[in-house]
Specification:
The structure is a single chain. By secondary structure, the protein is mainly beta. A five-stranded antiparallel beta sheet has the order 7-11-8-10-9, with no helix packed on it. It has a five-stranded antiparallel beta sheet with strand order 12-21-15-18-17, with no helix packed on it. A four-stranded antiparallel beta sheet has the order 3-2-5-6. The protein is elongated and about 100 Å long.
């Protein structure tokens, strides 16, 4: 609503009008405005997506009437509405499955809980280098890290209606000890699910393995940390955060993996690093940081 008030010392003649930076307002039919009298005009302005993102909308308006046959304009009025932009949707864990075996073909069954629109991540670590890990059909490869005696790679896919209960096949060029982890999340931006990611290899033999820091561009991301290491025997990796998967195969020269939710609602900026501690030393390790974008 816009109120025109005659603050002068003469009668202002109609018709009256109010123009805004959007659609003009509608004023009632009024013959004139006596000194001190007012008329109320109405208009509907549409708030744009850009204004929602910015957290405010601004409307500029000017009123007009006439005096002695000439147009009389009011002062320019500005209305600024401020509000909190809507928070991004919260990303929530849906389901997970895993497979640890020695072989060339590794078939994982997508959990029945997975729903259309969920984001699925597939982490694969094999205790071998110079190996080809084929990209599963309709999956996108995000990252790969090839170290001496170790290879880790990550794929993603937005779930379709018929994915739940179906198989995903991971194929290597030879029979290798391999850890495969498939995890699904709800509430991820399906158009651009991975907001930021980084991967690094372990530069020296140690019991502690630090993930790289990635820089997020949107608020509300889910930050995942993943470690894939090769140990001489069955070992463990532990790190702060919510552990979703931790496993080491038996025997010698085995892959040991750890998947942790580090932050469930991260702000914009660097994610920081996370350090995992192993039960034995190794210089063969790959560390990954993934930030999932909320829808």
């Amino acid at each position: 609503q816009f109120t025109l008030t005659n603050t002068g010392n003469v009668v202002i003649d109609g018709p009256f009008a109010v123009t805004t930076d959007q659609d003009p307002a509608t004023c009632p039919a009024t013959a004139d405005l006596a000194v001190g009298a007012s008329v109320v005009c109405t208009a509907t302005n549409i708030i744009t997506a850009g204004e929602v993102s910015a957290g405010q909308s601004v409307t500029v308006a000017t009123g007009a009437g006439s005096y002695d046959g000439s147009t009389v304009t009011s002062n320019q009025a500005t209305l600024t509405l401020t509000y909190d932009p809507p928070a991004p949707s919260e990303i929530t864990y849906r389901a997970m499955t895993s497979l640890a075996k020695k072989g060339k073909w590794h078939n994982l069954t997508i959990p029945n809980q997975v729903q259309e629109g969920d984001l699925m991540l597939l982490f694969v670590t094999a205790a071998v280098s110079d190996e080809t890990i084929e990209r599963p059909r309709r999956w996108t490869r995000v990252a790969i890290r090839d170290d001496t005696g170790l290879m880790s790679t990550v794929f993603w896919k937005v779930a379709t209606a018929d994915d739940a209960g179906s198989n995903v096949r991971v194929v290597l060029t030879d029979r290798r000890k391999t850890e495969s982890v498939l995890i699904a999340y709800d509430g991820v931006d399906t158009a651009n699910p991975v907001d930021a990611w980084r991967v690094r290899r372990e530069p020296g033999k140690t019991m502690t393995h630090r993930t790289p820091s990635a820089t997020t561009t949107t608020a509300g991301t889910m930050v995942l940390s993943y470690w894939g290491a090769r140990h001489s025997t069955t070992a463990t990796l532990t790190a702060p955060g919510l552990t979703r998967y931790s496993h080491s195969m038996s025997g010698g020269a085995v892959p040991t993996v750890l998947l942790v939710e580090t932050t469930s609602n991260a702000p914009i900026g660097p994610t920081g690093t996370v350090t995992a501690t192993g039960s034995e030393t190794t210089g063969r390790a790959a560390m990954c940081t993934f930030a999932l974008r909320a829808e």
